[in-house]
Amino acid sequence: IPVINADKMLVGVVSLGDLSTKHAPGAAETLEEVSTPSAPDRSGKGS
Asked: Where is this region: Disordered (predicted)?
């Protein structure tokens, strides 16, 4: 999540990992879901 100041300049980034260490509701479950690797495409057809 981008963090901006009053001048709308980027001053930082809050990651899902940052939120999960602060016990934000649902953050741990979301982090687990987005961190799960997808199955590799072995069809040989390319992207």
From this structure: 24-47
Which residues, 6+ apart, have CB-to-CB distance to 2 below 8 Å?
10, 12, 13
31-47 residue pLDDT tens: 777 776 777 777 777 65
End-to-end CA distance of the chain: 29
> Rounded distance, CA 20 to CA 35, Å?
13
**3-state DSSP call for residue 17?**
helix
* CA separation for the pair 45, 47 (Å, rounded): 7
pTM: 0.41
Residue matched to tokens 């997808």:
38
